[in-house]
Amino acid sequence: MLLIRCPYCEEERPEIEFRHAGEAHVARPTDIASISDEEFETFFFIRANTRGTVYERWRHVHGCARFFNAVRDSMSDRFIMTYKAGDPKPKKLPGV
Amino acid sequence: MAKAAAKTVQEAAGVERRPALGGQDMSAGGVKVAVLPPANRVSLRARQEAVASLSRALGVALPQKPKTSAAKGGRTVFWLGPDEWFVLDEQGGDALADCGKAKGLHSAVDVSHRHVAFAVSGPGAEATIAAGCPRDLSLAAFAVGDCSRTVFGKAEILLYRVSEQEFRVECWRSFSDYVFGLLAEGARDAAA
Amino acid sequence: MAESFRLPGRGRLAQARTARFTFDGKSYGGVAGDTLASALLANGVHLVGRSFKYHRPRGILSAGAEEPNALVGIHRDASRKTPNVRATVQELYDGLTAVSQNRWPSLGFDVGAVNDLASPFFSAGFYYKTFMWPKAAWKSLYEPFIRSAAGLGVAPDQSDPDHYAARFAHCEVLVLGGGAAGLAAALAAAESGLRVIICDEQAELGGSLRFESGAAIDGQNGWDWAQAAAARLAAMDNVRVLTRTTAFGYYLQNFVALAERVSDHLSSPGGLPRERLWQVRAKRVVLATGSIERHMVFPDNDRPGVMLASAARTYLNHYGVAVGKNVGVYTANDSAYAGAIDLKKAGVNVAAIVDLRDNPSGPMVDEARALGIEIHGGRGVVRVGGRLRVSSITVKPRTGGDGERTIAVDALLVSAGWTPSVHLFSQSRGKVTFNDEVKRFLPGTYAQDCISVGACNGTDGLAATIDEAYAAGAKAAREAGGKTGKAAKPKVEASESWSRGMLGAGPGAEAGTTVKAFVDFQNDVTAKDIRQAVREGMQSIEHVKRFTTNGMATDQGKTSNMHGLAIAAEELGKAVPEVGLTTFRAPYTPVTFGTIVGHARGKLFDPTRRTAMHGWAERHGAVFEDVGQWKRAWYFPQRGEDMHAAVNRECVTVRKSAGLFDASTLGKIEVVGPDAAAFMELMYTNPWQKLEAGRCRYGVMLREDGFIYDDGVVGRLAEDRFHVTTTTGGAARVMNHMEDYLQTEFPHLKVWLTSISEQWAVIAVQGPKSRDIIAPLVEGIDLSDEAMPHMSVREGRICGVPTRLFRMSFSGERGFEVNVPADYGEAVWEALWAQGRKHDACAYGTETMHVLRAEKGYIIVGQDTDGTVTPNDAGLDWAVGKKKTDFVGIRGLKRPDLVAEGRRQLVGLRTRHPDVVLEEGAQIVADPKLPVPMKMIGHVTSSYWSENCGRSIALALVEGGRKRMGETLYVPMPDRTIEVEVTGMVFFDEKGERLNG
Ligand SMILES: [Zn+2]
After folding, report:
1. Do C231 and C312 sit in the same domain of this protein?
2. What is the pTM of this model?
3. Do C424 and C281 belong to one domain?
């Protein structure tokens, strides 16, 4: 069981308090009703599934209940950092 | 607006109130698990700008630091999330009505019947809860007055440290059988 | 029978404290503190089991957790039969009953031993080769054969009456292993005052000091020092000492799983759990897991009486048991000499030491010689005599040539050297590196905050071990934020040390020989098998392992891995590290399911959720059904009714008079804030802005892909407050879905969500008499059709308690849903029931609810939809706001596939014969005369007998269904084909007049 730092609770908490919520930084188009089939495909179906550094959404569902973002290494499962929902993708990662 | 719509629930009941597990308890070695009597509970949501007015209306300053609580006059307010507090009134106060007096924009919802509360007390209290809760419950990591939603076995609970050797555990009503059962198992093992 | 091999005054057990036990029905005596193995050996019993594949007689190889041979069944009573217990780990208690395994009819004479003679049939890879062809032989021949031959021990056939505990624990320093290294590390770390946990698989801490007679620390004998150190640790508030506790799994971020055997050693466990799972999170971990002695690989090296030298020393020095009266020693390193010396000093005859090394020398060798023990240097054991017990060894020069000699022995101590236990280090994802000089895999690159010390780190010698461990313990505590440095480090005054030994097969078992020289005892893998695997093309050790099953038994190759690797490397002509080491996986030793399950069994397996009215339903004879974790009243049989009769009666009663139904399990969410309506617009397909306060609307929720996700009736309590209901199963995920959008896509909206599912108990009162039933109990709400029309909501009081009263219907009848605070649910239900009785109303369950809604063509999300159904498919286009510019799913709905012709649409089906009730899930075809497989054009989603319609009714998803009205379709079943007519979805009161009836 991993430890995950919740950026709202400001401490590490056991993984079972959390739920994974898919890839991060996939914004819902504001004009979604009028986007093309290709744009919808990209938005809804296509995911990077990177080997290595991944950006994910998690929810501290059995804690503060907030959604937040995390940077994780998909090889080692290790969390590199977490940050609040809505914050931009970090430019620099600690220790990377 | 939200504040005006907040409904005051006056429970001058014409029928019997039958709380889940009403009054049950169990003891094992150095632990006692007791079902606590009904209480007045409010789920309170607000943005930062409304905190001051809600604190005034409730008579307790809403805690701002994660995992902390504040208590005054039989009323305790728990920090649950950055815009979420849980108000517990054990002395007959009507927290919902008091929230309604605040000018700041907020959502206050009566959840008095949603929960069942347990007191887990004694030298084995920490070990009892550790039967199903993955959190570090040492005083250094979870001090007196600390509170948090977390998990207990397969149920979600609200955990609050009342004193060094006493915790308050709240869960949703329909999970109370399960939570009581697992607390009892944990207590028996803590006593073993 | 007397314990003729117990040496009076030897060992550390109080020999006066006796215990009786039985093995294969025969009664024996032992001593408190014995293991089953030591007690058997005290009675001269070496033959304890049969091997897995060849059913060869097997004895006791070790004195610890690495035991591959001595697996027995422990039978406490009829339901407590534990197979595959290592006799070397099982502690003796008075009345213990053990039975041998893998033998029939008896241990001494086993029919299965014919496998030994038929062994060419079982050669390496036989799993993959033998049972290939012909296919028909599988059922008749191979499978029955494998089933009878395979399997280790016999599983109990009754449920486990014991209970198992589980606990999470947290500490700054976790020390795995309680030998000299672990103790030193724990002492150093504990000084900091930080939380320290030290665990060891044995009943007492001490590790190899248990057998090392030559160790002295701080003026004490090594073992006594260990006991004193353990007592000191146990007395400290910040230290938890866990004995009989095996660290079996090392997971990410220093999360380590420990299995504590709490009561398996007690004759009457009382109320204690059998085992306890500890899930420990540590800031720092010190691995002090020691090393394991390897056996020598030579022909018939599995005969009972052949034993690791350190095990023989343990039996002598700790348990006071001589493993024989005339023992031999076969070794390639010094440590076995210590065994010979200890035994000799205890008065046991040592017939010979056979040492593979030419001209062995050193203090140990000198001491043995001085004691008059014959030493045969440069020689190997090439043969043994005896079948059920070793009776002699035949010794030959290593380099071949003459000089063969047979020596009578009744036990043979073997040692090929020591393998560091890097299992847990490897599980922590650390990388081992091969040290060619010492021929050992040692911890190399660390992946976690842990450190290896002592023998598992390749550190030889007690003084060096304690230095290293003490420093590591102190460092771990400092890194975890503690202060150390005052207490004195334990001082080693005397110790033993020995050289490295050898890997692989010895003389007599070299390449080209066909003898059975075992590498892996438990899986019956020989040196020849490994060579054969290489010859058949296996290049990597992972392939060799799978082909031969070397190291794949329950002991996970603790004694066999290194030998197997060396033999494969030799055959491949490669260096050991090029062939690689197999991956170590959890669990380190076998773990019971009970330990893994812990408290989560019986009523604690999963929460059973009950509504506030559950007790009433139970008292009134309800049969319950599981709906997720909920128990819901399914139907209420009366006076011997079966389900069919009860449901028919309930369905008719509701439409004739009224019925009460517990709808409390529906999810309920309170949506509050000035942007509540704007948020609802985004979450549901329907328009909400114009819904007046006090009115309700049926809402449809989609996922972004355009498929139906959930539905439910939503009441607007105020301009800024909605009371949303969800399906029972959807409660949690709908809340998550709404929070997700609110927090991450629409955070600008001023609105908050609160789950009120369990705040309100919900009593549905449905039927023409529903208003008459509730009216006498309701205060402050005008119930007239004008004041409170269908699909409206009011707040007021019922029975003197607050209510949110919905006028709504899931039955097609006039209906209400009475929400009251949950603790009042049952009392209000009782009051409504008393009113209902006056109108001959009934209580009804979920089955009747399903039938009534199907009669009206109301769908159930998850039954009539399956995640690929759009509102249009379900006939719910009317619920999609045509003028809306955005809602979740708006774009998904326009996807080409979702607007294409010929999609499956929800329709009604009437069977040609009204009595025939279709099966839900049955497939539908247009032409039953087509050859199989026919083209399926749909399936039945809901199907019931409708007493109100006097016929069966069904809903189905059918390709282009709405264009097929009146068409005849077919439902092929195994025994017949059922003819159906496609109809509309409403079977009862098509005009909907009864909503106000
Ligand atoms: Zn959090």
Report:
1. no
2. 0.94
3. yes
